[in-house]
Write a structure and sequence with these properties.
The protein is of the alpha+beta class. It is about 30% helix and about 20% strand.
Length: about 525
Amino acid sequence: MTMTTDEAYAYTTGLRLRPRSANPDGWRVDWADGPWPVKVHSGARRLPLRPGGPPPLAVLHRLLYGAFAVSRVRTDPSGGIVATPSDPLPHHGPEVQLRRPIPSGGAMYPTEVYAALPGSGQVCHYDPYRHELVDLAGPADGDAAARLCAALRVPTDPAPAAVLVLTSRFWKNFFKYGDFAARLGPVDAGVALGAAARLADALCGHARVRTDFDDGAVHACLGLDGEEENAWAALVLGPYGADGPGAQAWGSAGSPAGPVVLERSRRTRRSERFDAFQRAARTDPGTPAAPEAPPAPEHAVPDGLVPLPDPRPLDLLGPRTAARRFSRGRLFTGQPADGEALAGVVREAAEALRRLAGAAGDADGLAGWAARTRLYCAVHRVRGVPPGWYRYLPEPGALESVGEGAGPGSGRLVHEAMFAASFNAELAAFTVHPVTPADWRPAGGPRAYRAQQLAVGAAVEAVSLAAAAEGLSGHAVLGFDVTRIDTAYGLAGRADTDGGTQAQICVGAVRPDPNWEIAVMPR
């Protein structure tokens, strides 16, 4: 089955407008036959990551542990799926869940990370469970890192300290969500990319993002089947002057032919439309930059805007902030937030999009999408800010009343627009909606949709982490009635607006969680 750009647009539009119709009637999750929560290799040389060692490895230790490692173990008798009035007997997920520092839809974590180490010529897979690098090449494979850098079109003069490749392993999402994984997967990858870009910027002082590469050549370097796992973005770190690890730094000798991937599932289900869309994105000749963003408003607060107070300084890189990040909307208390918290959350989200636009470069489609992503906010109960529907203006740090304007009822509408009654969105203090141009076709083929959703994911990650820094919870969802929300913001059917809502993150205070969550440390 082949898919044209218009057919791909119809497919992705259905995922946004009618997510409950993405799969056939009677779709059920086979929990007993799901994948392992991490990708498992056997027969490989391994390098444990530690704080010491050459600078590239020390940076990788901090970056990979801070964004991707299994750093928490959570117990939940409900299996992470709470009974609701509409689904009193839900399917039961695992009672012990492996958690990472970033949010992920259903805690599936479909994004895998690979690392090219130009200093040693090696290409590795990151094992988030053991916090180790797994050498993918056999001893006779030569400079595998140079081949991967060439496939990614990464300049090697000067040589980067390392290059991280983010992929999506489809089955890790598809087994639970089916075709909706075509939307959820790139948002998940955008969440991971946003977190990694922030850490890379802090640790290296310089990082670049690439999404315009030859998928087939990259998959060949990583030993991937593009039908099962696809590379979506690369993060270039450095340059660093220090050499990479020598062969003596590695553990067991491994196999001359490289490692073997072990699977838990006995079978995997497929969807012709899902597979056809992914193939179309892989063969997309390239995504031009999205349309330029409109000019920013003046620094002075014009009449009619709601100025926000100066936000508090937030530490988004500290381990305590990451430890407090969770998506527990079912524990919302309805307690008001202050204006400083709202200002800090939306400011950090806007900064994350600005960082991604700068890291991706002017010629990359992702830069355009990051620049065009806007933040809208439904205020429910924030001290000093009237309830209502707003567009956030980073400069001058103010809210512009839009659509239905100021007035009560925004929380109720956000709650009623949710398709799954897993938590009471009305009890949140405010809800942030990333908004982009809904029609991605002017920016290219299906690959443009991927770039659009990567930018959305980066905004989701920043809102969630900034909420944690404020002592609040940010609970993101993609399955909601976007038409009702677009209408409330005055976005629906108008060519002069920023487009349509792509995700929603409810932010609010929560009561203590009755379930245990235990932090784990790398050995």
